Amino acid sequence: MSRPQYPSAHRQDIVEEIHGHRVADPYRWLEDPNADDTKKWLTAQDELFHEEVDGLPGRDRLRARVRELLGAGSVGAPVWRGERRFFMRRTAEQEHAVLYTVDPGGEERALIDPMALDPTHTTTLDSWQPDKEGRLLAYQLSHGGDEESKLYVMDVATGETVEGPIERCRYTPVAWLPGGEAYYYVRRLPADQVPAGEDQYHRRVYLHRVGTDPETDDVMIFGSGREKTNYYGVGVSRDGRWLTLSSSQGTAPRNDLWIADLSASDPEAPELRVIQEGVDAETGVHVARDGRAYAFTDLDAPRGRLCVADPADVSPDTWRDLIPEDAEAVLTDFAILDDLDRPVLLAGWTRHAISEITVHDLATGERIGEVPVPGLGSIGGIVERPEGGHEAWFTYLDHTTPSSVYHFDATTGETTLWASPPGTVDVPDVEARQVTYTSKDGTEVRMLIVARADAAPGEPRPTILYGYGGFNVPLTPAYSAGTLAWVEAGGVYVVANLRGGSEEGEEWHRAGMLDKKQNVFDDFHAAAEKLIADGWTTADRLAVSGGSNGGLLVGAAIAQRPDLYAAAVCSAPLLDMVRYERFGLGQTWNVEYGSAEDPEQFGWLYSYSPYHHVRDGVAYPATLFTVFESDTRVDPLHARKMCAALQHATSEAGGPILLRNEAEVGHGARAVSRSIDLSVDTLSFMAAHTGLTVDGEAPRP
């Protein structure tokens, strides 16, 4: 493609003195989405995007194949309440998964179908939580991708709404008291009770009694006078005796934690006792059926450990290690199976991003076996029956296996397939290989290379390198229709397990945050160089892709090493790291990135902020920014400003710089058809700029 004629974007002469640095911001006007100039610019960018992308070869083929590969649908693990179970399922024809219940008599019923609620397919079911008896269901809905969840309660037997909507419940946990008459939850203060511009913050923990007015009758339990960016978690033990409450500042990898004995105090005024406060560790406590408190923590154990204590005193000096920290694997989950002559504990792990489950004696923690798993993939949460039992359920998926539900019986030690996705899918013959490489500072990093079974290093192919590298988020094997369509056509897809994630524990996370953020970008560049050195690809056939924090990664990649990449897809990105705290949920992330208000931390941010490192006359890779108008996490202004800067700066030898702006979707869940559209646009763009042919009949297994 030749360089397009880009829409006009005037440059403002804005230069600010910040902590001794002169910081230019020529496209600040694009921060205002409602300004006439911004609207005109967006309209022109949309026209340019369609001119450049709609006619790319292979789009019909890609669309059909991605849809085929999504044909299995999805199924989720069961959540049990006595003999009733709840689960999610989506067929190939459905835009969203539906929440079902199976009654004790075996009848299956749909409880919440987002498509029935909204024929435009823009309503999403964000979360749900049945009460302890399975009679009532708390659930949250949002619209148009804004993630502004509204909370409702349903009578499970009749399907009728008992109450709701309760507003301002974004990201709230729901912790039911026994009997279904009340629950603890988290809710933001009304906008008129907080300073202007802070309505996304100021959360509080409340006790709500079903059927009462939340605006007048809810009892505030916790949160007053604390940090405005705090997130809170609440939990109530199955017997209703123990309340646990956690608090973390934004997305910090540490939390404060309290416990209250509700049998000895009023649920409306629980006497909270400190478990940990001001400790640089992340800990959760669960009081189980056996009366013991299980502390899941990374205190003095970056890869995690599981401890036990008396709930009457759960201070860390009383903890006894049940499962100590492993030297290599990261502890991720646990479940208790106690209806056995010898009760056991199941422990979930990831070892270099690959999942496994081990079996331990519940009393001593001694390892006595392992749970057979289907392959080298990812395991979802391990589910047990709340009232006890000898069975567990978990989801499993990998690069060629859609998510399925497996059942483990501790009496036999066998794992069996319990629920498959409702549809079938014909997947290509591909292989995933884990490769270790060395980053700039000598650190060993791993990546998974997914390619056709007949592909081998030394035969360079169009390649997508994907990464995230932040917020303790691991990238583990996952089924992706887009990945399979790309690989089937002859490409290579690579997932890099960069520092900043949790693939190697909390130390791995901290090695990629705050002043060490550049490590993440160095790991990414080193992955690209390794792929080229081993003959998997070449610089002119290598694309990079990432979203959100991964969009920051992609922005930094093309700003720092434009010579190393031929194309980039940068989705919902953070790119102006000088002003990111002023928009969306930015202030909750300064514990991960740092704050521009602090001179030293400003130095970290400014040193890599992609928007501020765009240079005139550089041949930048072909770049597609994808943004979503209803995104309330990462403001689309980042992509708008960076797009304008690159369009102005890139040389004639550079690739096209495009912006895909989508309405009525946000940062998270979306309808399947919208996901297919996005996948087709991004894959066809990367194919066009890396030389992948997708318009012919791809080899089939």
TrEMBL record:
Coiled-coil ranges from the UniProt annotation: none
UniProt signal peptide: none
Span of domain Peptidase S9 prolyl oligopeptidase catalytic: 483-691
InterPro entries per record: AB_hydrolase_fold (IPR029058), Pept_S9_AS (IPR002471), Pept_S9A_N (IPR023302), Peptidase_S9_cat (IPR001375), Peptidase_S9A (IPR002470), Prolyl_oligopep/macrocyclase (IPR051167)
Catalyses which reaction(s): Hydrolysis of Pro-|-Xaa >> Ala-|-Xaa in oligopeptides
Span of domain Peptidase S9A N-terminal: 9-420
Sorted UniProt keywords: Hydrolase, Protease, Serine protease
Keyword Thylakoid in annotation: no
EC number: 3.4.21.26
Gene3D superfamilies named in the record: alpha/beta hydrolase, Prolyl oligopeptidase, N-terminal domain
Family annotation (PANTHER family): PROLYL ENDOPEPTIDASE
Family stated for the protein in its record: Belongs to the peptidase S9A family.
Protein name from the UniProt record: prolyl oligopeptidase
Organism of derivation: Actinoallomurus liliacearum
